[in-house]
Every structure is written in C-alpha cells, then in structure tokens.
Amino acid sequence: MRRLLRRLMAPLLLGMLIFASGAANAHPHVWITAISELLYAPDGSLTGVRHAWTFDDMFSSYALQGLETKTKGVYTREELAPLAQTNVESLKEYAFFTFAKADGKKEKFLEPIDYYLEYKDTALTLHFTLPLKAPVKPRQLALEVFDPTYFINFDLDDKDPIKLVGAPAACQLKIQRPNEATATAQRLSEQNFMNGDNSNYGAMYANKITVDCP
Amino acid sequence: MKPALISRPLRGFLLGIAAVLAFVAIDGTVQTLLAQTPFGGPRPSAEPQVYLEISSTIRRAKTDGSAVWTLLAISFAYGVFHAAGPGHGKAVISSYLIANQETARRGIVLSFVSALLQALVAIAIVGVGAFLLNVTAKTMCGAERAIEIASYGLIAAFGARLVWIKGGSFIRALQVSPVGAVALAGHPHDQGHHHHDHGAGAHQHGHDHGHDHQDSHVHDAHCGHSHGPEPGELAGPGGWRRGLAAVLTVGVRPCSGAILVLVFALAQGLFWAGIAATLLMGVGTAITVATIAVIAVSAKDLARRLSGAREGSGALIMRGIEFGAAGLVLLLGAGLLFGYIAAERATCF
User: Fold this and answer.
1) How far apart (Å, rounded) are the C-alpha atoms in residues A28 and B51?
2) A18 inside 8 A of chain B by CB
3) Of B125, B61, B69, which Cα lies nearest the Cα of B270?
4) Do A149 and B9 touch (CB under 8 A)?
5) Please, are residues B94 and B300 in contact by the beta-carbon 8 Å criterion?
6) Residue A150 Cα, gap to closest chain B Cα (Å)
7) B349/chain A closest Cα distance in angstroms
8) How large is the angle between the packed helices B67-82 and B271-308, nearest 10 degrees?
9) What is the ipTM of this complex?
10) What is the mean pLDDT of residues B105-124?
C-alpha cells in the first residue's frame, strides 16, 4: 500500500509542479498610475486614504465601451457615474488593493465615499476615499498598494504620488517603489521552491509607503 | 527470487520519477527562457511593457499604416510569452496528453486548435457584443464569465470521465502486476503467467489471455490497454474526436487580454487590426502550448522506455502516471470552477 501511494505521488507532483510554474508567471492586464493622499484629523490621527487612480488607455477604452454620451468622445462625471459605481463595487472584492498597518496591526477600511470618474487625455481616473474604520494615531503607519494576483500593475505617479494632508509636522513620509532587481530574485526563488502558493505573487510589486510620527 | 521481484518495480518507479523530474526541469527552463528573452533580459516587468506597446501601436496605426506590421509582430511575440502565464489550457492539455497515449504530432495539432479557438471566441464576443450590439463592458464581461464557468465545468467533467477510464486501467494493472504477485510468492506458477492466477473472484478475465505470449510480457495488449487507445489506434477518427473534446473544454474560454485589445482597436476604428492581432497572438500562444505539450509527451515516452521493459511494474507505472494525469485534469477543472485556483481574471470592474 505504501508503495502504491508513492507511485501515485509522482504524477501528482508532476502536475502540481507544471501548474505552479505556470502560475508563477502571472502578468498584469491593467495598469494603474496612482496618486494618494493620507488624510489626517486635527488631532493628528489618520482618518483615511484618498486615491486617484488613472487607468491605462486600453483599459479606459474597454471600460467606456457601449457608454452613451451626449457629445461623442466627451464623458461627463454624471455620464460616468454608473461606471464609477461598478468600479467601487467590484474593487470591494479585492479590498481596494489598499493594505494599511498601524504599528504592525492591520487596519480595516469602510466602504468608499466621494467616488467619481474623470475622463481626460484618453484615460479614466477613478477618485475615491477609503475611510478607516477607526482613526489611528500610530508611531508608524505602513500602507501598501498592490494587487496580490498581479492582474493589475500599480505604479505610483512620478511626481509627489503621496501627500500627507493635515499630518503633524514631525511626521516623515517614506516611499518605496517596487524594485525590479528584488522582484526578479524573488520570482526565481519562488520558482525554485515551487510551493504552489502564488496567491501573494503580486506582493513583490507592492508600493510601500511608511509614515513615521515620533 | 523475492528480492528481484521487489527491486524491479522499485527501479522502474525510480526511473519514472527521474523522467518526471526531468520533464519538470525542462518545462521550468523553457518557461523561464520564454519569460526572459528577447525583451531586454530577465525582467519580470518586460512583458507588461510589450502589452502596453500593443495599445500605442494601434494608436499609431491610425495614421501610419506600416505600424500594423509592428502590431502583428508584437502580438505574435506577446502570444508566445503570454502563454507561459496561467490560463491558456497549457496544464489541462499537457495532462490530457499524458493521460492518453497521445503522439507529439497530435499534441501540436490540439494546441493549435485550442489556441485558435480561444482567439476566435474572443473575436466573436467583441464582434457581436461591442461591434454589432454596442453593449457595455459590464455586459461583455458577464458573457465572458459565463463562458469561463462553462469551460471550467467542462474541464472538470472531462477530467471525471478520464479518471473513470484511467482509474479502471490502473486498477487492472495493479491486479496483474508483480507487486500484487509478491503477496502470492511461494505459490507455484508457470513462469511469467503467475499474475493471472489470483484466486480472488474479482478477477474474471483470468484465463482468457496471456497464453499466446512469450513469457514475461503478457498483459500489454489486453488488460492495461483495454480502455485506452493502442498507439496504432491513435490515428483513427475516434481518437481525434476525443482529443478535440479535450481542447474544446479549454478553448472556449477567451483570453481577457485579447478582448481588451479587440475593444481598444474597435474604439480606435481599427477593428480589423485588432482581429489580425488577436489571431497572431493565438498563433504565438499555440507555439508555446505546443512546445510544452511535446515536452510532456516526450517525458512520458521517456518514462515508458525506462520502465516499460520491466514487465508488469512498467505497465503499472505508466497506468499510474496516466491515472494521476487524469486526476489532475479533474482537479484543475474543479479548482478553477470553485475558485481555488486563480486563473487569469476576466476584466470586470
């Protein structure tokens, strides 16, 4: 019986490895250029994050497909409202690709508010605010923006992608963009291990933002 | 006598494992190479840029007709590298080919049929949905999701059927193998024919065959293959039908990248360029899937050659590999259907 089990292991192993090696090569279909604001209350606590995500022009065209407008090629905020609604509803499933930790503790966000879409230079930009469930005042805040499955690639905008709005003067902002060399090294080691766990593959493309408030 | 009986299947088993590992190593190497060249060395983000170039090239093609050639070249290359990612039926087709004793030639044909079918389904969805009916992306995405679920369901059903067939062959091989015969060691037998003499009532075909063979290889033409095709049978029409059923389960699901490109091309007034790009992406995808399929078939041939000469144990290993591959098709289908395995998402948001 043990020998039989061992025989069965081989094909199973083979299959899992084929699959794992394939899944490790996931790549994005949608590109987002992000600008985000961290919103602080007068008492210096963080209350939420305001995102402005600009989609690549291919996805923008796709999203606009079949949308009726008064003037061709011009999309008003009202005309885009149903699409913005769809956007925030679908993004909920992915936790809005926004992951916050206050002094190492995971923080939760409420449903987005003040969301709308804007169409400019052939690209759609989705604006929305994610309020924190409870405002926090940590010594260190860590915020990551990324898609764990790497279907979406997030790039922080080149210039001033993160702004602190109303933060205490002593707070220091640090931004770490995904490093391609690290990403390559991680990818290769992941293939070597072939553990089949690719659920967090996109983490190596995460944009890491930290705010230290001593 | 006894040590020989034990070591033979073991040796065959180890050889089988070696073949499997070799396959995995080659597969991994091919994929790594595919992912790295020729777009600027080993950068995981190289491919994304290729994809972005598709949209800028379509834009350029509006004013500059020669950009269409660039578009076609990029699309083809994108297809080749893109297929190294999840989806595209690579795992299902390879597993199917291993489960059935398919030839490399058939593996290539089936890879091309499935990849081109994927391209045609994408063109049909966008052609009917966006071009004729002008529905929204949300509606098209709904159609895409429905097709996706149907595809996963079909893969699971097809896998279940394979498991049923291959499970039967595997159990029969177990019953006649020398591993089973070890339990009967000491029982007097004619040489080589011992494995038909279990005495267990379940073994109804015990006396029907095996006597017209030279001693050591006995059941190859009968038990082991009774439900699987003979190598010679593969060229027959029935075999093709089975293979096409396999690729249909995979091929009905369009690639979401192709749909994005098609809708974008349509919006730019260059739908035909999008169609041409999608077809070339399909050809590129087919080449990658076919390469992996050929490697899968060759690995199995190698495993057969290394273990096959060793009478019952070799056949047992082969039936075991086939059964495992059949099980994998079922697991893939079920995993995809219930969301345990993340495939390429449909672009729905």
Assistant:
1) 9
2) yes
3) B61
4) no
5) no
6) 10
7) 5
8) 30
9) 0.76
10) 91
Record: contact A63-B55, CB cut-off 8 A: no
Neighbouring residues of A192: CB distance < 8 A, sequence distance ≥ 6? none
Say whether A29 and B51 touch across the interface (CB within 8 A): yes
CB contact under 8 A, B317 and A151: no
Q: B323: which chain A residues are within 8 Å (Cβ-Cβ)?
A: 8, 11
* Cα of A171 to nearest chain B Cα, Å: 33
**What DSSP string runs through chain A?**
-HHHHHHHHHHHHHHHHHHHHHHTT---SEEEEEEEEEEE-TTS-EEEEEEEEEEPHHHHHHHHTT---SSTT---TTTTHHHHHHHHHHHHTTGGGEEEEETTEEE-B---EEEEEEEETTEEEEEEEEEEEEEE--SEEEEEE--TT-SEEEEE-SS--EEEES--TT-EEEEEPPPHHHHHHHHHHHHHH--S--TTGGGGG-EEEEEE--
Distance from first CA to last CA of chain B, Å, rounded?
Answer: 67
Strands A98-102 and A105-107, sheet pairing: antiparallel
CA atoms of B281 and B286, how far apart (whole Å): 9
DSSP B44-94: TTHHHHHHHHHHHHHHHHTT-TTHHHHHHHHHHHHHHHHTTSS-TTHHHHH
Mean pLDDT of A140-156: 89
Closest Cα in chain A to B174: A4
Query: A37 to chain B nearest CA, in Å?
Result: 23
The structure's pTM equals 0.73
Touching check for A147 and chain B: CB below 8 Å?
no
Structure confidence at residue A34 (pLDDT): 95
